[in-house]
Amino acid sequence: MAEYNLNSEKLKKLEEYIDGIEEKEGALINILHEAQDMFGYLPKDLQLYIARKCNIPASKVFGVVTFYSYFTMEPRGQHVINICMGTACFVKGAEKILTEFKRILNIKEGNMSEDGMFTINTLRCVGACGLAPVVMVDGKVYGRVKVEDVEEIIKEYKK
Amino acid sequence: MAGIKSLEELKALRDKYKENIIGRDTSDSENKIRISVGMATCGIASGARDTINAIIDEVSKEKLTNVVVVQSGCLGYCYAEPTVEVRVPGKEPVLYGNINAERGREIIKKHIKNGEIQKDWIIERTFKNI
Amino acid sequence: MPNYRMNLLVCGGTGCKASGSSEVVEVFEKEIEKAGLKNEIQVIVTGCFGFCEKGPIVKVTPDNVFYVEVNPEKAVRIINEHIIKGRIVEEYLYKEPVTKEALPEQSDMPFYKKQIRIALRNCGFIDPENIYEYIAVDGYQALGKVLSEMTPEEVIEEVKKSGLRGRGGGGFSTGLKWEMTKKSKSNQKYVICNADEGDPGAFMDRSILEGDPHTVLEAMAICGYCIGANKGYIYIRAEYPLAIQRLRIAIKQAYELGLLGSNILGSNFSFDIDLKYGAGAFICGEETALINSIEGGRGEPTVKPPFPAQKGLWKKPTNINNVETFANICPIILKGADWFNSIGTEKSKGTKVFALAGKINNVGLVEVPMGLTLREIIYDLGGGIKGGKKFKAVQTGGPSGGCIPKEHLDTPIDYDNLTKIGSMMGSGGMIVMDEDDCMVNIAKFYLEFTCDESCGRCTPCRVGNMRMLEILKEITEGRGTMEHLEELKELGQIIKDTALCGLGQTSPNPVLSTMNFFWDEYVAHVKDKTCPAGVCTALLKYYILPEKCVGCTACAKVCPTNAISGEVRKTHVIDREKCIKCGACMATCRFNAITRR
């Protein structure tokens, strides 16, 4: 597997996962989820590997990866900050929270901080509208976030 | 876990686990018979836990779905603990004193099932709730 | 099996978990163990109670006492006081917001008073990770009844007679849909459960899957029996990890007990269910797009007909219903169509779950009979508007719906009435807006959402919505003209008429409905260049009120652009050329002397 510029140990685990699936084409999205969980993102080489392994055109894999917002081709920071932009959070000021995160982390373009510690994403509704506005860091949900809280949240992960 | 092979087996399984659920169903609670056991420190010291567990056991054995068993605080009749109050909708509540586990079971069998109030165990209520 | 005398039902839904309910469970278990009550008191982690605003929620039964906002310290006291000594801890009860009176019983709370729970019947009542709890509440009895006593035709007739309509938004008759798929001839058919709950602000499907996953599995199997399918898929959003986990457990347990798999309950009917994950594309809630996504492709919609009932997944006849629709099936089978259709209005039967969110006191999930008015839901169940502000509008139907103003608060809610007033039922999200929300900005928000989520396949949606968004940006930034408003209307109508799928056809609704009901606000933005709600920054102007200003200079010091000038103890003024409208002065002023208009 030297032809791919990828971690061969992880690749082996992915191969085992794919081998366990009978009907591969229909399982493409589940496979991509698994791959992104392992590698953190879906670089071109990884897409190519999956395409060949499943006997699907690489163009189709690329098409799927770019269609869904959950998949990313860019490496992600160590911590992923997801800011909910669903309607309930929006009317409760989620935009201000996003601006504050970007200001403190000094992110002007793209969505990763320069030191590679944080990636900021927005998503649509985690369904915890009772706690709006909501921020999710690496799967942990923070509810009723105020602009003043942003610095504290970042500090928690900077240690 | 063994597979369930028929609707009858499924129904038997349901009835077995239903007991676990009955106590949780609070719907329609105003139309149910409410039995409360005084479970303050003095009540517990006098064995109220045995009483309430016996009552619950008896209720589920008899499959009485119209009965709610709850614990209450101190009613002030420390001399007569454990105390058990039975409230049948539309009737005056009855307060029993010195109810051990065995008497608890009797209350279910006689008072709840057959409507026979056990006069000997009644203690006189000295207050009115406003 | 111990005969528990008391149960502590702790909500384990996403909302309450985020508020710390797992820690509360730990404390309960530890304390109960310590008190030696392990065989008498049971702690059960349940699905969502719907009252997320006040989470974590703990309900004590049979006492029927309802504690809100429980944390580990409170949990210790609840054990020591209530469980051991039988004294209800008054201060942890829910307090009526108006009278501040503590209400111990769930049924006393206005939030629960007008609710009838069918789809949510087991949420907050059983442990979703234990199949025996579901069996104890008549779980899988409907499937058993169908397999042993009814023909597929009879079941479909019953569902048709019940009047159940699709709860995902469209409102198509569920029985008819099943019948159509049954009539299509094929050696292979599929059942799909649409759990791609994408409308922002709607979370009823998540709650059902988290709180009562088996009811969905059971209903899917019943549907499979009716239409002649032996394979089902649940298409679920990747954003719902807890629901995915609960479903996995439920599926595994159902297989172990032979309630899924081959020859279910000794019959010759077999049914398998698999999970398929979404990947963050709103459009995949649309039936044909969803099918493409399950097949592993881009989730783009295709033209209907052919309908999925004729040619669906892998070109085979496929029946798709959403989670809440399936959650209604088992009660209909067990209690009968006549029971179900006695609830609701003439054309909309049964109940609907609504997710209340936004500027409302009781954010959460409610299930009410069809035909309740918006006023009853917002004021009686929802507890009115937060902070005593004025109600402005309620948005229903998500990005496909519209904003409903106060003139229509007394409309009885059903599918047809909502459509009549320019909105729609949608999946049941209800977002309440108050006087501080700008309707033009809200319309812009929804359009940004649609532009983001448009799959790009058809031109009206891909290009048209983008044009509409550009116009709205012009308006909110103060460059709007009256011609713009006409253009918006015309473009909206064209997109409605020509877009390929449901997403595109409904995408102009938020704009059109706000233009219809809040025309004055649009005109104010265009003609007077002001934002009446004070939201659109570009249109705001800050003023110092001379009668209130004492000349303390605090505002001048805090202004980042030195736009405020004035001498000490004299009225200050803002130089509007320099002002960047950051609002720092207003936040600093202790005399309320600064306003914005």
Automatic annotation (TrEMBL), chain A:
Residues that bind [2Fe-2S] cluster: 84, 89, 125, 129
PANTHER family in alphabetical order: NADH-QUINONE OXIDOREDUCTASE, E SUBUNIT, POTENTIAL NAD-REDUCING HYDROGENASE SUBUNIT
Name of the protein this chain belongs to: NADH-quinone oxidoreductase subunit E
Molecular function per GO: 2 iron, 2 sulfur cluster binding; metal ion binding; oxidoreductase activity
Database matches in CDD domains: TRX_Fd_NuoE
Entry superkingdom: Bacteria
The family this protein is said to belong to: Belongs to the complex I 24 kDa subunit family.
InterPro entries in alphabetical order: NADP_DH_HndA-like, NuoE-like, NuoE_dom, NuoE_N, Thioredoxin-like_sf
Keyword set, alphabetical order: 2Fe-2S, Iron, Iron-sulfur, Metal-binding
Cofactor binding annotation: Binds 1 [2Fe-2S] cluster.
Cofactor field: [2Fe-2S] cluster
UniProtKB/TrEMBL annotation, chain B:
Family annotation (InterPro entries): Thioredoxin-like_sf
CDD domains hit by this protein: TRX_Fd_family
Top-rank taxon: Bacteria
Protein name per Swiss-Prot or TrEMBL: NAD(P)-dependent iron-only hydrogenase iron-sulfur protein
Species, as recorded: Caloramator quimbayensis
Automatic annotation (TrEMBL), chain C:
Stated family: Belongs to the complex I 51 kDa subunit family.
Protein species of origin: Caloramator quimbayensis
SMART domains named in the record: NADH_4Fe-4S
Domain 4Fe-4S ferredoxin-type: 540-569, 570-597
NCBIfam families tied to this protein: PRK13596.1
One Pfam short name: NADH_4Fe-4S
Stored InterPro entries: 4Fe4S_Fe-S-bd, 4Fe4S_Fe_S_CS, NADH-UbQ_OxRdtase_51kDa_CS, Nuo51_FMN-bd, Nuo51_FMN-bd_sf, Nuop51_4Fe4S-bd, Nuop51_4Fe4S-bd_sf, Thioredoxin-like_sf
Gene Ontology molecular function, alphabetical: 4 iron, 4 sulfur cluster binding; FMN binding; metal ion binding; NADH dehydrogenase (ubiquinone) activity
Keyword vocabulary terms for this entry: 4Fe-4S, Iron, Iron-sulfur, Metal-binding
Protein name: NAD(P)-dependent iron-only hydrogenase diaphorase component flavoprotein
PROSITE patterns: 4FE4S_FER_1, 4FE4S_FER_2, COMPLEX1_51K_2, PROKAR_LIPOPROTEIN
